[in-house]
Amino acid sequence: MDQHIIIIAVVILALSFDFINGFHDTANSIATAISTKALKPAYAIMLAASMNLIGALTFTGVAKTVGGKVANPANIEHGVYVVAAALIAAIAWNLFTWYYGIPSSSSHALIGSLAGAVIAAAGISAVNLAGFLSIVESLILSPLLAFTVGYIIMSLIRLIFANFSPHKINSRFRSLQVLTAAFQSFSHGTNDAQKTMGIITFALVAGGYQSTVEVQTWVKVSAAVAMALGTSVGGWRIIKTIGTKIIKFEPASGFAADLSSALVIISATLFKLPVSTTHVISSAIMGVGSAKRFSSVQWGTAVTMVSAWIITLPVTMVLAGFTFIIVRFLFL
To answer: Where are the transmembrane segments (predicted)?
Structure first.
């Protein structure tokens, strides 16, 4: 197949992944505000879409990490086809988990798929093991940090406002939730949209269209717009799981969950580390619920979610590997 055609196909696939990521993941950032009635669904989605767009246009460090740390795209033969296979696998897994309302990780899916496709194409030695493991470490440690931060912030709120009337607390924190929902959506854009920018840049380097992992302006803008459009569609299945099936939300707990996860995500962005916003947000919610009462967390839902998190990396690696074999058979 002509190199120009396949690179166009990869860009379309990448932006499709970003669009799907928008309604799959960004729902997480507004679920708590909708659950506590701090925002009406239509307003919440518009807020999330606009703040995601701004966040996505603000940073590029995570994009460079994704574009160069898993493997060196310049050293991968048929690298553009590798990216195509990775994106097909990641999109398939995202749609599967979205359909069943499981808030799995688009980040795990993308990183796992890229590694699996690289291994199928060039062997395990082609994977930059140190870089890959550093990404996996950030994906594993960030939920633990989010749980801890959520627990601490909710504990402080309970301590500081112990003598306030529930009506006054709910009224104040419902207003504050609008701000934290915006912050949450902004932080999501700073991290998740960059993964698509990174994968497109990987393909451009592998195809010989550029020599460094610097993110071109058109890549940055198109990825930001694709995610914002996906957000505007709304991921209602995931909103239901996040907003109702982990803990019973009140405005104070929604505020604590939003603030905790946003702080962890924006910190990871500043350190140029890709994290799973789904994992971070869900873990922050669990931490907040545990601070209120350990039994208030619906741990059955939590176990289902964690199980999906655990299997995503290996499943997408295998899926991407088989996808590359099929792509190679058909086009190479």
So the answer is: 43-67, 79-101, 107-127, 139-161, 218-239, 251-271, 306-331
**Block residue for tokens 């499709």:** 16
Q: Within the chain, how many helices (H) and strands (E) appear?
A: 13, 0
Residues 230/25, Cβ–Cβ less than 8 Å = no
Structural tokens at position 12: 């379309």
Q: What is the DSSP string of 90-141?
A: HHHHHHHHHHTT----HHHHHHHHHHHHHHHHH-GGGB-HHHHHHHHHHHHH
Q: What is the DSSP letter of 73?
A: G
Which pLDDT tens digit goes with each residue over 271-320?
999 998 888 988 898 899 899 887 777 777 677 767 777 889 999 999 99
How far apart CA 277 and CA 164 sit, in angstroms, is 33
Angstrom distance (rounded) from CA 37 to CA 31: 10
Find the largest Cα–Cα distance for the chain: 70
Spatial separation of the C-alpha atoms in residues 52 and 282, rounded to whole Å = 19
C-alpha pair distances (Å), 40 with each of 14, 168, 171: 31, 21, 16
Indicate whether 54 pLDDT > 90.
Answer: yes
Note whether 1 and 212 are within 8 A (CB): no
With a cut of 80, say whether residue 157 has pLDDT above it.
yes
pLDDT bin (cut points 50, 70, 90) of residue 146 is: very high
Res. 240 pLDDT band, cuts 50 70 90:
low
Q: DSSP readout, 243-312?
A: HHSSS---HHHHHHHHHHHHHHHHHHHHTT----HHHHHHHHHHHHHHHH-GGGS-HHHHHHHHHHHHHH
Q: Which amino acid is at 321?
A: G
Q: What average pLDDT does the segment 71-94 reach?
A: 93
Amino acid at 91: I
Backbone angles phi, psi at 179, to 5 degrees: -70, -45
